[in-house]
Amino acid sequence: MLAAVATGGALGTVARWAAAIASPTPPTGFPWMTLAVNVLGCFLIGVLVALVTDVVAAHPLVRPFLGTGVLGGFTTFSGYAVDGTQLLQQERVGAAGAYLATTLLGALLATWLGLGIVRYLAGAPR
């Protein structure tokens, strides 16, 4: 299990790094990429959880590899915290509040949507 989580985490972290390289946040910019990565990752976590709990009988290592590993490495609470702190240090309180709230609410909504969409498409109970 440790190897599955570690391998998945390495893959997810590289994917997040590639996204950050593809669309870096300027020093005084808004951290759109971190927000998008976290919301997308949470949507995919919802999809994964619905698939492995309600739709398919998955191998025991699928959830640790994809959920904890890949998606845990892809999403970034530490990046979220650093971005929020940097916005506050730049005295951009409104932007910091919007970023922190939008990420949190967006992530929760995305997870709920991922779960709901898969369960609806599979005809699984909600």
Main sheet record:
none
Average predicted confidence as pLDDT: 95
Low-confidence blocks of residues:
none
Order of helices and strands: HHHHH
Explain what you see.
There is one protein chain. This protein is mostly helical and 126 residues long. The chain is 80% helix and 0% strand. The chain is built from five helices and no strands. The longest helix has 30 residues, at 93-122. The protein is globular.
Write a concise keyword list for the protein shown above.
mainly alpha; single chain; globular; 126 residues; 5 helices
Write the layout of secondary structure elements.
Blueprint: H1 2-22, H2 32-55, H3 62-74, H4 77-89, H5 93-122
Helix pairs in contact: 1-3, 2-3, 2-5, 4-5
